[in-house]
């Protein structure tokens, strides 16, 4: 896959330290799916930096045509700091869509989505895409957690028909006080689920995986990892798996979405 030159449509603060960026793309994203990601060049000739991976927050459509993508990022270093300074009309080199996606079977009726911090993008994209799916869900509960209310982004966009939103913060500044997995356990004690899909910090994903395994609930997790290439060339994003033929898989080409039961936590 080759890089394409994209046009910055907007770059707006989403919360303290978080930005939402819209990018106009010439082609290639018509069939992009929730969980896939892009590699964005954040530097220039004067300040060369490795590309950074960003999950797709959603697709930009005009009529029935996909004309662009939206990403969400948190300023944590030099690359994302440079991205935060981009303005409408700037151009960025993007490679994508890359990786695999969440797969919600048509038979799924009770779905749970879990997002922590900057893990919101693929979960938001998934929730939006489920509205277009033939054969609806009986119930979908979305759990979103953060350290403080400043880490809660895009939560109003989960106000969707048939969706229930449960918000937690570690300090209690918004929603329930405590980690998001505590609310998840309480919900599962009250009723069943056919599938759990989650994205967030590794500690949260490990806890979600253990909760799902204890209840024999299928669980898919989208793993966040630093990548140099995004296409399996550098082999820098290895994760341990329980597969018979290999001890490791790579987040960029074998993920970022994995069956939680395959991973060696």
TrEMBL record:
Pfam families per record: DHODB_Fe-S_bind (PF10418), NAD_binding_1 (PF00175)
Biological process terms in GO annotation: 'de novo' UMP biosynthetic process
Pathway: Pyrimidine metabolism; UMP biosynthesis via de novo pathway; orotate from (S)-dihydroorotate (NAD(+) route): step 1/1
Gene3D superfamilies, per database record: Dihydroorotate dehydrogenase, electron transfer subunit, Nucleotide-binding domain of ferredoxin-NADP reductase (FNR) module, Translation factors
UniProt keyword annotations, A-Z: 2Fe-2S, Electron transport, FAD, Flavoprotein, Iron, Iron-sulfur, Metal-binding, Pyrimidine biosynthesis, Transport
Annotated FAD binding sites: 52-55, 79-80
InterPro entries referenced in this protein's UniProt entry, alphabetically: Cyt_c3_hydrogenase_gsu (IPR012165), Dihydroorotate_DH_ele_sf (IPR037117), Dihydroorotate_DH_Fe-S-bd (IPR019480), Dihydroorotate_DHASE_ETsu (IPR023455), FAD-bd_FR_type (IPR017927), FNR_nucleotide-bd (IPR039261), OxRdtase_FAD/NAD-bd (IPR001433), PyrK_electron_transfer (IPR050353)
Cofactor comment text: Binds 1 [2Fe-2S] cluster per subunit. Binds 1 FAD per subunit.
Top-level taxon in the UniProt lineage: Bacteria
GO molecular function: 2 iron, 2 sulfur cluster binding; electron transfer activity; flavin adenine dinucleotide binding; metal ion binding; oxidoreductase activity
Family according to the record: Belongs to the PyrK family.
The protein's name: Dihydroorotate dehydrogenase B (NAD(+)), electron transfer subunit
Native organism: Desulfosarcina alkanivorans
